[in-house]
Amino acid sequence: MTDTLVTDSPTTDSALKVDSLWKIFGPRSDQIIGTPDADLSRAELKAKTGNVVGVKDVSFDVAPGEVFVVMGLSGSGKSTLVRLLTRLIEPTSGTVTLNGEDITAASESKLREIRRHQVSMVFQHFGLLPHRQVIDNVAYGLEVRGVSKKDRREKASEIVELVGLKGYEKSYPDQLSGGMQQRVGLARALAGDPEMLLFDEPFSALDPLIRRDMQNEVIRLHRELGKTMVFITHDLAEALKLGDRILIMRDGAIVQIGSPDEVVARPADDYVKDFVSEVPKSHVLTLKWVMREPRPGESLEGPALPITTIVRQAARAAIASEHPIRVMDGDKMVGVIDEDDIMRVVVAEEES
Ligand SMILES: Nc1ncnc2c1ncn2[C@@H]1O[C@H](COP(=O)(O)OP(=O)(O)OP(=O)(O)O)[C@@H](O)[C@H]1O
Which family does the UniProt entry place this protein in (predicted)? Predict the structure, then answer.
């Protein structure tokens, strides 16, 4: 979502830190971790013990303001993982730390406080209150918190405008399209000014065009508000579009964590490779992955572009310039790229 290449674990303090998190469903689920059975595949464990691994030894860090996407097919454990983050489901083992607070050790009252003030969730089926107008749906969380009617209406109007629903304050949910209802859901999540937003496949039921609008809306809101976001999806294109980094899950475990360009350029295994095979490479890869050393005698007078530029965005400059583009990492030239190099990426993606 940003042009910044986030490769390693964030160096800033984490907004969210997940450490060796497990969720096993079934009988005696707490007696599996640490035994050889924990190494069995999900199917083998189920056959042997009747337990199902929902989330398997998952660790990751999310930096403040980062958009972190968790992607996987149905059954890969995404919903379980997102619910573990606020302990809507109890972990079997491991820890979740939110803004320095150990969620796994928090009391019930602390958890309620965190869910009300620090983290908001946006679901596919948002569960808007049908007999309440948009404005009161948006203000609902503030009402629960005991904010006065005047103050919560004021805040809710501000947020309604922010998500593009101005004029619909007095409508009821069933008078709105699916996309607009999801905007109400977004507004409701934002009204309490949480530090983090958790999205659980919020746009999966929307038509493709409306879905695209909503994705753009998330990008815009992130730019304006800078909130940390954890976004769950089964859609790779959505993951690549929204994520600063993407965690790919399979059978409850992590297959790869990386920035969109890393995942596409260096898939961790055949599973990810298969996933990304249809992705238009020139839309995702940055110059980092396609630049080369200058050839002897080659002109170094071409325009300079940052190494984080997406290939497609560099194409116009490459075509317009007689000289190769200089690829810059800060002030340092780290390589060059010309029209032919870019064409090679585009042709390769057409062939695949
Ligand atoms: N309460 C439960 N009891 C037993 N097994 C469960 C429970 N909840 C989830 N599972 C199992 O855990 C695994 C992960 O499920 P989860 O719903 O987290 O996956 P998902 O990636 O979110 O899939 P989907 O997109 O279909 O919801 C699945 O095999 C599922 O059957």
Answer: Belongs to the ABC transporter superfamily.
